[in-house]
Design a protein that fits this description.
Chain lengths: 147, 110
């Protein structure tokens, strides 16, 4: 897919889209997922904080780290929303990383002044479940239960 | 998304409209660096019209705050909505920045 994705009309529960490794696509994807969550009456906090921030982190990780900012590579996004939960899967073409090994706490005094290191922390704090697995690529799955 | 720069006395005010995320954080950084180059030392970032901020956006604010403080100035924040306030509390960055409820209150004692 070479063109910027356009928002999907209607409120299909599922979103399945492949984007180039370019951070300029992030907002459009986030908007499409948030619209689906809004259609299922997810709480405002989910729509304005949890979903946009956690998904932005997952997408930027996939683009900048997984795909090493190589626009020739793509990121595959799959979102499934229903009235009980949102399941997001973000797949890149990188070799993956050990999620469980990334446990550094960016809120400690020695880390607070660091410019980086908050992405995974925010995903974990804003989602109910975060996991990584391999499935023809490196996949991060995020799950948020509708409160 | 856009950034609007204005001045009130010796305070440079930067308004963030839309998101502050990985795709535009460098633009904000450069705008503020340009103001520092011109002599600004007191910078207020106003989030009244901001949607959400990601870790890259937070990182840029931390980086700029460190730089400005090293130069003898300060970077302060105003108008965080409840969601943004939660984001700063989750990351404990609310302890790093002076955050005011309104722009006027921030300017009163800057």
């Amino acid at each position: 897919m070479n063109a910027r994705p356009t928002p999907v009309e209607g409120f299909e529960a599922e979103l399945d889209v492949r984007i180039p490794s370019d951070v300029q696509y992030i907002e459009s994807i986030v908007e499409q997922v948030v619209r689906r969550c809004a259609a299922h009456s997810y709480p405002r906090r989910h729509l304005c904080l949890n979903v946009p921030v956690a998904l932005t982190e997952a997408l930027s990780n996939a683009i900048l780290r997984g795909n090493q900012d190589n626009i020739a590579r793509s990121v595959h996004v799959h979102a499934n929303v229903d009235s009980s939960r949102l399941v997001l899967e973000v797949r890149d073409e990188g070799s993956g990383f050990d999620l469980d090994a990334c446990t550094e706490d960016p809120t400690t005094p020695e880390n607070l002044l660091r410019e980086d290191g908050r992405g995974l922390f925010l995903m974990r704090r804003l989602m109910d479940h975060v996991e990584r697995f391999s499935d023809g690529g490196n996949v991060v799955r995020l799950i948020l239960r509708r409160a | 998304m856009s950034f609007t720069v204005s001045a009130r006395g010796d305070v440079t005010i930067v308004e963030v409209e839309g998101q502050l995320i990985v795709g535009n954080r460098q633009e904000l950084k450069q705008k503020i660096l340009d103001e520092l180059e011109k002599g600004a030392r007191k910078v207020l970032v106003d989030f009244a019209r901001t949607g959400y901020i990601d870790s890259s956006g937070l990182g840029v604010l931390v980086s700029l705050a460190k730089k400005i403080r090293d130069m003898g100035g300060d970077l302060r924040l105003a108008n965080l909505n409840d969601d943004l306030q939660t984001l700063f509390e989750l990351t404990k960055l609310d302890t790093l920045f002076q955050i005011s409820e309104t722009r006027e209150r921030a300017l009163e004692n800057f």
